[in-house]
# Entry
Amino acid sequence: MFRRVVWSSVFLDPKRGFERVYLPVEARFDPLTGRVCVVSELRFSLPMKADFSELARVTEAFCPFCPEKVEAATPRFPEEFVPGGRIRVGEAVVVPNLMPYSQHSAVTVISRKHFLTLTDFTQDLLVNAFMASQEYLERVALYNVSQKHFLIVWNFMPPSGGSIIHPHLQPVSYDEPMGYYAKQLEASKKFYEEHGYSFWQHLVEEEKRLGERYIGATGSVQWLTAFAPRNYLFEVTAVFPERTSILELGRNNINDFAEGLIKILNYMNALNVSSFNLTLQSGSPDEKHYRVNASIIPRFTLPPLGTSDTASLRALNDLSVCYKKPETTCTELKQYF
Ligand SMILES: [Zn+2]
# Structure
């Protein structure tokens, strides 16, 4: 299930009088899709701690998501779709996405406060924001029955691609699966047909048995470090072993997810990370081979040049590179669970 190829890269090292040095490098294949990550444990400087407080101060005056402006500055849904034009749960507000990713694409403003750091998110804020996003997707499914494939993505802060400082999720719906998620669904279906059980349940069981990348559980949600991460530092995977669609998640499931997510945010903060990407995705309710799952990767720039964490291999060849073994990250993350 966990295929890897180990190489040894040889060179004559100028720092050791041109002595012959062998550097271990391995290619790891994602157990579901076969996507490749090159892993080598190298000395890796921590990211530069980014401080977005000045950027937050400057952008607050023009922010459409701040509570005093959200009514006038954000679009509304048509009345026949969402009576009242917007969905509200606690502090969370769902509005149409002005830059849509599909026919049904929204933004969920998470908090009334304009600027939150990684460690400012409370369980309540996160639960309400994911509940509000789920309610939007439920309405999409009722309004347009062809819509079955749901994602909730989060770009937190500029290094992740986030263009507005005010924290927000982006729920999006497709009538057919798109992108890498489509590959996962297809491979998951194939695995089910070949083995007669779900890849996702098997993954959790195998990782528990091996104990190398299994972080722990928060109630109904299982947390792992990905075998073939899509980031220099790490990728965390969360699996809801009993749920196929985001629409099936109960408040308790979302609460469990938020509890684990806060632990991951605290860990990232300790690594000087201030930005991340998240995707929470699900199959249509009849796709019994799939399970609701989430991926989280840190995003950062590297000292001393402010170097991007995405280079050619990742950007153009979809070939990831990781400088920290997922097993090392798992050991560190366990202390937060
Ligand atoms: Zn704001």
Remarks:
- The pocket of zinc ion is lined by residues 60, 63, 65-66, 114, 166 (CB under 6 Å).
